[in-house]
C-alpha cells in the first residue's frame, strides 16, 4: 500500500491563517480600533428573492410523492442547461444542451477536469494566480511551467515564441489581479492552442463583472475557441451562491484530442464520480437566468462594482498604480515605497486598521503587490477609503 | 497533448439503456399490459417533513444578509458533523468531529478517495458489485482483482490464504445481492487488512436497512477497524436524498499509511477540489438525525422493508433461492430453470409484465441471477407478487 506521493509535494498554505492570526493579535492589543476587512473573497449580499422563491417552491415539491425528485442524469436538468444556453445565446454564443454540464461549482470542476488528461502533459499556469490550479496539478504529478504576469504585461501573459505546453489555464477577469483579456489577446491564445494541439482551461467565474462591451465575457466569443477551450463558470459570485453551490462547465463537441471528443470523456467522468446538483439548488439557479432574477442579481453586481470604483478612485488620487477595479471585483495594487506584500499588510493594518491580502500568497510574481476586494459593505468601503485618503504614498 | 488513455479501457454500460429499450418495445407491442418496475434503484417516497421544514427555514436564512451563509469550511458545518458523531455514538462508535467529512454523496467520495492512493496499488473488488468501484479504478489505471461472490459463499467473499492487495472494497448490505456481513466476517477482513497493510473502503450506504441487532451497521464496530478502514455513508436511501445530495465519509485519525494520516490527505484533497455541500442541504441533513426526523425516516425504511419482505415471502413460497430481502432493500434471486439473466428478464417481462435487473450487469458472477428492489410503491409490489404466485419455477 502506497499513498499518492505527489501529495507530499504540496505546500501547506498559511496565507489566510496568518492573516487571521495577525488581525486577532492586533485587535487584542488595540481593542478600541475598528478593523475593516477588505481582503474578503466571499460575497456578503444575500440570495435574491427570485432565487429563494424558486428554492422554496422546490422544497415544497420534494415534500410530495407526486412531485418528488430523485436521481437526475448527473449532468443537470434540461431546464437549467437550457437556461444556460439562453444566457450564452445573449452573448452571441450558440451552445448545444449536451455541451453544458451543471456542477457544484467551478472549483470542483477545475480540479476534476484533470482526470481526463494524461499526467504526462505539461501545464502552463499564470503567476500570480488562484492557488488551486497549481495544487491540483501537483497532486497529479504533472510538470508545471509558469506564465509570468507582471507590471510589464499588465498581468495578462500572452503566448511567446518559446511557449510550449499542453494545458493552459486562463482566468479573466483574473483572480487576484482583476485584469481582463481583450478579444485580440484571447485570439492569440486560441490560435496558439490550435497550432500546438493544446487545451485552454478558461476560468470565467467573474465574467458577470465585465461591463465594457468591447471585452469578451466568454472564450467562445473568440473564433476557433470551440476547438480548443473548456470554460468554467460559477454562480458563486454571479448570484451569491458561495454557500449554495452551483456552476456550469462547457465542453464543446468540436473539442477533440487523440481522436476522442473531450465531451464524451467528461460525461463519463461525471457519470461515474458525480451524482448531480440538488434539485432545489438547480431550481434556484434556473431563476437567476429569468428576467426578474437577472435584474435582481444585476443590482448586487452593480453594488460590488461601485465598491470597486470607489477603491480604484482612491488609489488613483493617491497615485498608487493598480489593475482591476472596473470590470472586476478585485483591485491589485503595487505596494507603495517598495514595501513587500507583508510589510504593506502590517502598515495598512496598524496605521489604517484595514485588512487586505498580500500578493505573495498568489505566487512569486505577487511579491510587492496587494489584493483588495469589492465584496464588503458600502459603509465599510467608504470608511476605509476615507482613512486611506490621508495616506502619503 | 494526450488524453487519459485509461478512459479508453472503460466499457460502455448499456444495462439500463437496454432495459429501457426492451420495456419500451414490449409496451409498444402490448399497450394494454400494465408493466410494473421492480428494478428501480431510486427511492419513491418524498422527503420527510422534518427535513423539508429545516430546508425551508434555511432558504429563508439565505434571503437575509444577517443570516446569509457563504463559503463554509468545505468539510461541512460543525452542527452536521456533530449530528453524525451522535448517530455513531448510538452504535457504540466514538468519532472525533474532525474524522467526519460531509459530502455530496457516497458515490462522489468513493470515486474521489482514490486520489490519495498511489496508482500502483492493487485493488480487490467483489463480483458481483456496484459498477463504479471498477470504473473509477480503470480510469486511474490500477490493477484490479476480483473477489468472487457466489452461491457458495452467500455472495460474501472473505480473505483467503492467497488474498493479496492494497485496497479492498466492501459493501454491506450489498448492492446488488442484499447480503450482509456478520461481525465475525468483517473481523476477518479487518485482521487481514492490518496484517497486509491494506485499506478497506467500506460502502455502508444501506446500513439503515439492517434490523437484526446482531449484524454490524458500521465497520468501526469491529475491533481494529479505525486503523485500516474508511467508511462511506449516504442519506440517499436513508432519508430519500437521491435528488438532494448529502452523505458523509469517515476517515479515522488512527488510519496511517507511509507514516501519513489519510485524514490529512483527504482533507487536503477536499479543500482543494471540493467546496462543500449547500448550507440548505446540510440543515436538511441535520434534521434527519433529530428525534422527530429519525422517527419519520424510520417509517419510510419500514415501508421499503415490508416491500422486501413480501417479495422474499413470494420467492420462498415458489422455492426460488435468493439472498437479501431482509436487512436490505435488495433481493437477489437465482434465475429458475437455468435461465440466463437476460432470458429471465424477457420471461418476466413478457409473461408477468414485471421489470427487474439482470444480474449479468453487475459482473461475471451475476450471470444466472436477477435483482429486484423494494423501492416501488406497496400497491405495485402487491400486484406484482400476486402475478408471480402462479409462476411454475
Largest sheet: number of strands, sense, barrel closure of chain A: 7 strands, mixed
Order of helices and strands of chain A: HEHHEHEHEEHEEHEEEHHHEEHEEEH
Cα shape of chain A:
globular
Task: Give me the CATH fold name of the largest domain in chain A.
Answer: Aspartate Aminotransferase, domain 2
- Report, as a whole number of angstroms, the end-to-end distance of chain A: 57 Å
Unreliable stretches of chain A (pLDDT < 50, length at least 5) are none
Q: How would you describe this protein?
A:
- Two copies of one chain form a homodimer.
- Chain A has 393 residues and is of the alpha/beta class.
- The first copy, chain A, folds into two domains: 5-47 and 293-388, Aspartate Aminotransferase, domain 1 (Alpha-Beta Complex); 49-290, Aspartate Aminotransferase, domain 2 (3-Layer(aba) Sandwich).
- Chain A is built from twelve helices and 15 strands.
- Chain A has helices at 15-29, 49-62, 78-90, 106-112, 132-139, 183-195, 235-238, 262-273, 279-288, 291-318, 341-352, 378-388, and strands spanning 36-37, 100-103, 122-127, 143-148, 167-171, 199-203, 229-234, 247-250, 256-257, 260-261, 322-324, 330-334, 354-355, 357-358, 369-373.
- In chain A, the strands form four sheets. Chain A has a seven-stranded mixed β-sheet with strand order 2-8-7-6-5-3-4, sandwiched between helices. A four-stranded antiparallel β-sheet of chain A has the order 11-12-15-14. A two-stranded parallel sheet of chain A has the order 1-13.
- In chain A, helix 6 (183-195) links the parallel strand 5 (167-171) and strand 6 (199-203).
- In chain A, helix 4 packs parallel to helix 5 and helix 10 packs parallel to helix 12.
- Chain A starts with 14 loop residues before the first helix and ends in a 5-residue tail after the last helix.
- The interface between A and B is large, with 73 and 73 residues.
